[in-house]
């Protein structure tokens, strides 16, 4: 796809939480770089909506409150995971708003940035509340993880060959509460940051919203958002340039493209790790199925522009009729 063909297109860009570094300072640096890439897209006439992950960050915030609340002298209250989730959304979104505004100024882009704290509706009976799948927080060795699990009562799991992490419930997002606000802001010409950390999950009963302690997968929420704002392209940016078959094995093979039926077959073979690559592929399939004509790309931040032009990354498209 030529750059000129991207002019006027709506693109939802999902930034991986694991690509945001481990400290606020590191995150700010990475977001400055990310904002350069996003600003280039905006300058080319693309209507960008940005979503972001929060797995490592929400784990750190939760851990900080856990440790501090156990210190009798510190006078820090325990903090529910749902509120830690909201804090991560606020702090990542706030840093990104700042770095985007600075980059727009540098590149003479006259666009407003709006950060929308976002909630997503989930089903209170989602089986994910029993079978925890979402890795959050720092990576540990297996021994460290087992000690941590014994001390805290938390569940831990190996994460895609990268180490062990705490896992929490990750219910499937059904709807985005602030969707109309996001749409209105887009119509007004804002570059919108929304659905951070997959959104704060709420259950709704008789119209009453109740936040729940879970972390929604931001790629699944991004797919709903992309479909509901009629995006042309969903771009999922993570740490790898492409999706692989036999990931991490000597037989590893990069995928340039997958039709939906191929993606489903690979998912059935267990090619994509739950909690990491699997929800990304599921999200892409969900988007291109819900929005025929839509394209989805998984690639790394550094390859975002080339991925948008179809020159790299793994493209997911609907089956040919
Ligand atoms: N089949 C696969 N192909 C590519 N990467 C995979 C695959 N299976 C698991 N992964 C891992 O999934 C990671 C992306 O998931 P994750 O780190 O959770 O995403 P995020 O960037 O959104 O935080 C990749 O960096 C890689 O380590
Ligand atoms: N909430 C979420 O999906 O975060 P990560 O992208 O960090 O896993």
From TrEMBL:
SUPFAM superfamilies: Carbamate kinase-like
GO cellular component, one term: cytosol
Reaction equations catalysed: hydrogencarbonate + NH4(+) + ATP = carbamoyl phosphate + ADP + H2O + H(+)
Keywords: Kinase, Transferase
Single GO term (MF): carbamate kinase activity
GO biological process, one term: L-arginine deiminase pathway
Domain Aspartate/glutamate/uridylate kinase as annotated: residue spans: 9-291
Gene3D superfamilies: Acetylglutamate kinase-like (3.40.1160.10)
Keyword Transferase set for record: yes
InterPro entries in the record: AceGlu_kinase-like_sf, Asp/Glu/Uridylate_kinase, Carb_kinase
Family: Belongs to the carbamate kinase family.
NCBIfam families tied to this protein: PRK12352.1
Protein name: Carbamate kinase
Organism: Adlercreutzia rubneri
């Amino acid at each position: 796809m030529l750059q000129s063909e991207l002019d006027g297109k709506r693109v939802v860009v999902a930034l991986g939480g694991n690509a945001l570094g481990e400290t606020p300072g590191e995150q700010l640096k990475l977001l400055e770089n990310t904002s350069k890439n996003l600003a280039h897209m905006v300058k080319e006439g693309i209507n960008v909506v940005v979503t972001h992950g929060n797995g490592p960050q929400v784990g750190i915030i939760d851990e900080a409150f856990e440790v501090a609340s156990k210190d009798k002298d510190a006078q820090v209250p325990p903090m529910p995971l749902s509120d830690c989730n909201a804090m991560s959304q606020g702090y990542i979104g706030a840093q990104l708003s700042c770095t985007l505004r600075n980059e727009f100024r540098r590149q003479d882009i006259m666009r407003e940035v709006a950060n929308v704290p976002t909630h997503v509706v989930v089903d209170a009976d989602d089986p994910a509340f029993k079978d925890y799948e979402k890795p959050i927080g720092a990576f540990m060795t297996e021994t460290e993880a087992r000690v941590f699990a014994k001390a805290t009562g938390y569940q831990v799991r190996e994460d895609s060959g990268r180490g062990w992490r705490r896992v929490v419930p990750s219910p499937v997002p059904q709807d985005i509460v602030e969707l109309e606000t996001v749409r209105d802001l887009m119509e007004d010409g804002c570059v919108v940051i929304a659905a951070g950390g997959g959104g704060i999950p709420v259950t709704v009963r008789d119209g009453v919203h109740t936040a729940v302690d879970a972390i929604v997968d931001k790629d699944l929420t991004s797919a709903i958002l992309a479909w509901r704002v009629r995006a042309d392209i969903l771009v999922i940016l993570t740490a790898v340039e492409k999706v692989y078959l036999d990931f991490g094995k000597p037989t590893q093979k990069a995928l340039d493209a997958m039709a939906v039926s191929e993606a489903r077959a690979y998912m059935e073979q267990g090619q994509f790790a739950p909690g990491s690559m699997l929800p990304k592929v599921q999200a892409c399939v969900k988007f291109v199925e819900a929005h025929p004509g839509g394209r989805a790309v998984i690639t790394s931040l550094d390859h975002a522009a080339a991925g948008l032009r179809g020159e790299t990354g793994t493209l997911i498209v609907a089956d040919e009729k």
